[in-house]
User: What shape does this take?
Amino acid sequence: MRALYPEIQPFAVHRLRVDGGHELHLEECGNPEGVPVIFLHGGPGSGCNENHRRYFNPARYRIILFDQRGCHRSTPRGGVTDNTTADLLRDMEQIRERLRIERWVVYGGSWGATLGLLYAQRCAERVLAMILRGVFLARVRDLEWFVDSGANRIFPEYWAEFVGAIPEAERADVVSAYHRRIHGTNPGERLAAARSWSLWGARVTTYLLASGTAGGEDNEKIVCEAAIETHYALNRYFIEENQVLREIGRLPRIPIRLIHGRRDLTCTLESSWMLNRMIPGSELSIVEQGGHLAGEPVMIDALVGATDEIAEELS
Assistant: This one.
């Protein structure tokens, strides 16, 4: 079974000023002359970490990672003004131009896979290959599965706790209820709502490893991540309903690897299966014992295998 590549440090770190007062954290790792690959983190709202560099052979890849607007080391932290999907797609092009890259591999998981698909549909000539994990199609049904009518039937006791944090009169629209509190002016209410939102998400995504918890993390981080996640969810991810599938024909004819855990209860396997049926030549790897998280050993094995295969194909 494949493991992550050894820990590495960036050979360059940049701060990229973009519009709306945002400044992005951007780093490059691996081989400056290698195959460029951009890593798109999930969330929306999380950010990159040192393990994300390790899914790629550092001798073969020029690994580019950035924290999306308002995320992690990008500033303003938690900022939702001028923070839409269209903004993120423009940021990717600014990064590519700043680093003088003609074409690159696009790697994304969960929300990062959504963003990668939208980017490839918009900038098809800039994409060499794609590696997508746990695809999220950002349809109403995909959001509802997570917050309203799907995962709640598998985790009923956790769901009761999640919706119990808001008044019964507001439970018909859970996303709006949480958004109002997390984006409100009462610091105590903001934190309580953010912790409850985060705890529900953690319990669903980490169930194969351990019960998720929102404790022990820095409060600012919890609030900022929940602020961006609910901002995107409330606005239906700033894309039209079913946009990714409707515009599937705009994808370039390139190597596309889809990796999805059979036991993923955050983003269900149906999404990657549908994409595989609709994209000629794409390859779907179903990881039978895998869930949603890229850090599960079986998922690491599949993802590192995919990046190795793509590097070989492009060499």
User: Anything to note?
Assistant: DSSP finds ten helices and eight strands in the chain. Strands lie at 12-17, 23-30, 35-40, 61-66, 104-109, 127-133, 256-261, 283-287. The chain has a mean pLDDT of 96.
